[in-house]
Amino acid sequence: MVFKGINSETINGLIICKEPPISSSSKRINEIKINGKNGTIVEELGYEPCTKPVEIGLTQNANINDILSYFSGSGHLTFNCESDKYYRASVYSGIDLNKLLRYRTGKVEFYCQPFKYDINDKFEVVMNSIINEGNIYSEPIIRLEKQNDLIIDVTINNVRFKYTFDTNDTYVEIDCEEMSAEFEGLNRNRNLEIGLDFPRLEVGTNAITKHDGDAIIKIKRRNRWL
Fold first, then answer.
1. Which residues contact 156 (CB under 8 A, 6 or more apart)?
2. CA distances from 191 to 126, 127, 146, 152 (A)
3. pTM metric for this prediction
4. φ, ψ for residue 74 (rounded to 5)?
5. Radius of gyration, alpha carbons of the chain
6. Using CA atoms in the order 177, 181, 186, 190, what is the torsion angle rounded to 10 degrees?
7. Which helix (H) or strand (E) holds 133?
8. Do the Cβ atoms of 6 and 51 come closer than 8 Å?
9. pLDDT in tens, 4-42
């Protein structure tokens, strides 16, 4: 198991006894009942986070402070059973320290956001299309690298937007999840002309059309799975 970029095998005296089974997150819904109407109207409101328990053990030479530090905070979490994916996870509940020291076993509960992501995700140059290999839509990061033209006009999966580079900027990264545009950590949302919706990648092939401008388009897909 890897948490916050640290492999559990490097923590002195820590044993991962049992990882949680593979499971998917449930949908959050709002159910509306109408008198005289059969059944209900169901509004889908996204996906619920989930709790994933991990059973741990201690050897006699375990450094308890290192272990408590390891199981704290937030970061990417990868289980051995799915070593190519990670969760965005946090530890909020405390560990029963008395039980852990007495019986040398315990349980850690990870509070995981609904999706698991491709651990090898990276930017790639795209031309006319891009494939979402996950099993649910993704919210990518779009990197536009300036060439000669200051303006680029693009449609990605039916969402059209236009971006105007500042004279000294060499690129912009548009985060479709955060709905933000940045260059070197500086906000560039004022340069982005877009509607209420940012591009998202549906499962399978997604079309890309460059209407104007010569900027290089790179996309980090953020493939994800339930």
1. 142, 199, 201, 206, 207, 208, 209
2. 22, 23, 13, 11
3. 0.86
4. -135, 155
5. 22
6. -130
7. none
8. no
9. 999 999 999 999 999 999 888 888 878 888 888 888 888
